[in-house]
Specification:
It comes from Drouetiella hepatica Uher 2000/2452. GO terms for molecular function: endonuclease activity; hydrolase activity, acting on ester bonds; metal ion binding; nucleic acid binding. InterPro entries: PLipase_C/P1_nuclease_dom_sf (IPR008947), S1/P1nuclease (IPR003154). Keywords: Disulfide bond, Endonuclease, Glycoprotein, Hydrolase, Metal-binding, Nuclease, Signal. This is S1/P1 nuclease. This protein has one domain: P1 Nuclease (Orthogonal Bundle), CATH 1.10.575.10. A hairpin with a 7-residue loop joins strand 3 and strand 4. It is built from 10 helices and 5 strands. Helix 4 crosses helix 6 and helix 5 packs antiparallel against helix 6. The protein starts with about 30 loop residues before the first helix and ends with a helix. The radius of gyration is 19 Å and the shape is globular. The protein has about 325 residues and is mainly α. The N terminus is likely disordered. Strands 4-3-5 form a 3-stranded mixed beta sheet. Strands 1-2 form a two-stranded parallel sheet.
């Protein structure tokens, strides 16, 4: 169990980026963002529960794609032998995006939940449907159940990768919300249909894509490692400053924390202007990127810490 007295667990400085990844409809953070959360979880476990970390690494090495996907990456000359386990957790955290459209492993609906957000100024004609029954919360519980069971480690390794990834997804605010309005009567699907331009001369992207790339844009091992270290050591990101860590309720992480951030910070309580035309996005306010960058950074650290706590509980 983790030893820090501030936690009893029972159950981001990159500059704002104008060059972003190609739009994909259901990604939370980009792959490097997920790698950062995996690196933070590794460092937390290394310091506070090395025995759990050892078990996590052992299980991941039983993953059905360990030899075909990960072995050659771990053996790169640029990866020090003493840091191969760190890199393995980074790769595990991004695996659920790496296997998109692979029928053997992919579950597109697992990455999000569309809690409806209808701004106060919207008319009654705007309807807000309930979230689908299969979603990130049900998927996370399903995979945690597998990890608590006696199934073979090869099956646990797949579930472990999903837990890594979904905990990260839960902390990207646009993965728990869909904006409903007269402009988006069918919902903006987590900002993927809410088109913006980061600056006047920027190309049009989705708001979701903008948020995905706030943590980092490089998947280079050393870059991810260094970014994770800086974020984790930020004085404002210490466990004593992250009061949310006292709440072990996963539903609350999504419905209270991330959803509230989406409403208040991402959409600015319904005042943020977006376009439904994918070719002509609205320009973001001048202060938007600088205001949301620290929020995204804090969220990715929360994700890494909470992932470590969950793994310590499980192993």
């Amino acid at each position: 169990m983790l030893k820090r007295s501030t936690l009893k667990f029972t159950a981001l400085l990159a500059a704002p980026l104008l060059v972003l990844l190609c739009p994909l409809s259901a990604y939370a953070w980009n792959k490097s963002g997920h790698m950062v959360s995996g690196a933070i979880a590794y460092s937390e476990l290394q310091q506070l529960d090395p025995q759990a970390l050892k078990q996590v690494v052992a299980i991941l090495k039983q993953h059905p794609e360990f030899e075909t996907r990960w072995r050659s990456q771990l053996n790169q000359v640029t990866i020090p032998a003493r840091q191969q386990d760190l890199y393995l957790l980074m790769l595990a955290a991004r695996w659920s995006d790496d296997i998109r459209q692979n029928p053997a492993f992919d579950h597109p609906t697992w990455h999000y939940i569309n809690f409806p957000y209808k701004p106060a100024n919207q008319p009654d004609v705007v309807q807000t449907p309930s979230p689908a029954s299969e979603n990130i919360l049900t998927a996370l519980e399903q995979n945690l159940t597998i990890l608590r069971s006696t199934v073979p480690d090869s099956e646990k390794a797949i579930a472990l990768c999903w837990v890594f990834h979904l905990v990260g997804d839960l902390h990207q605010p646009l993965h728990v919300v869909s904006l409903f309005s007269t402009q988006y009567p069918e919902g903006d699907r987590g900002g993927t249909r809410f088109y913006i331009r980061p600056a006047f001369q920027s190309r049009t992207i989705s708001l979701h894509e903008f948020w995905d790339d706030l943590i980092l844009s490089s998947v280079r091992f050393q870059t991810v490692r260094n970014r994770a270290t800086r974020l984790r050591l930020n004085p404002g990101h210490q466990r004593s400053e992250l009061s949310e860590l006292l709440d072990p309720n996963i539903q609350n992480w999504a419905e209270q924390e991330s959803y509230t951030l989406a409403v208040q910070q991402v959409y600015r309580n319904g005042t943020l202007a977006g376009s439904s035309d994918r070719n002509h996005g609205e320009v973001l306010p001048d202060d938007y990127a600088t205001e949301v960058q620290p929020i995204a950074e804090r969220q990715i650290v929360l994700a890494g810490d909470r992932l470590a706590d969950l793994l310590s509980e499980l192993f």
